[in-house]
Amino acid sequence: MSASDAVIERLRQNAAHHYLSWLTHRAERWAESPIEEAMFYALAGPCGLTAGTVWHWESCVAGALPGVSELPPYYEGLRSGAVELYQQLPVDGYRLDLAVVGVVTDPVSREEVGRVFVAVECDGHEFHEKTKEQAQHDKARDRRLQELGWLVARFTGSEILRAPEQAAWDVYRLIQAERNRLRTARGLSPLPPHPLLESAP
Fold first, then answer.
1. Residue 61 and residue 70: Cα distance in Å, rounded?
2. What are the pLDDT digits (tens) for 137-147?
3. How many independent structural domains does the chain possess?
């Protein structure tokens, strides 16, 4: 068993332990590489769940996310409370490895007042920054996504396989910080530190 297979199997078992074994079909169907599969499990597994919430399927509508004008038939994402997770999301001619959306709500009215969009890119050595042209392509892609309102969290394959949960926590910390920035800009108080985010590595 390769190192990446061992990491994925551990994450799969962890998901099953948390009654998330149904994620396996989703991960295997959409992930284009072992590092994408590992990152999906880390984001959707226990790192992505807060006390009292569970993931459920939710249809995604073209136009609901920046740069998304067309989607494959029956395209769905996962939603857990104020977090949405998408695999292979087509954005403005690019395909995001993973996309995580954090919803910002008003604490009194419970109405949505904003969203945080994070493109999670899983860079395997064979496809990213191996040549000058590939590096330039990735940088141009990142700039275009940022113009559309996406934050970009780019991880190397070795980072993901060495510590997938750490990478997932980094994404959720980024979302939390941006949520607080949006809340403050709208005159709302920042969210209190989340105990799971504070205690995570």
1. 8
2. 889 999 999 99
3. 1
3-class DSSP assignment, residue 16: helix
- The token pair that represents 122 in the structure block: 């899983």
* Phi, psi torsion values for 136, nearest 5 degrees: -65, -40
SS3 state at 126: coil
- The answer to whether the CB of 152 falls within 8 A of the CB of 121 is yes
Torsion of CA 104, 105, 111, 113, to 10 degrees: -40
Domain containing 34 equals 3-199
Q: Are 80 and 162 in contact (CB under 8 A)?
A: no
- How does strand 94-105 pair with strand 76-80? unpaired
Distances (CA, A) of 84 to 79, 99, 121, 184, 201: 4, 8, 16, 22, 22
Predicted TM-score (pTM) of this structure:
0.84
Contact between 147 and 129 (Cβ < 8 Å): no
Q: What confidence tens digit (pLDDT) does each residue in 154-181 have?
A: 999 889 989 988 999 899 889 989 988 9
Q: CB under 8 Å to 72, separation ≥6 — which residues?
A: 90
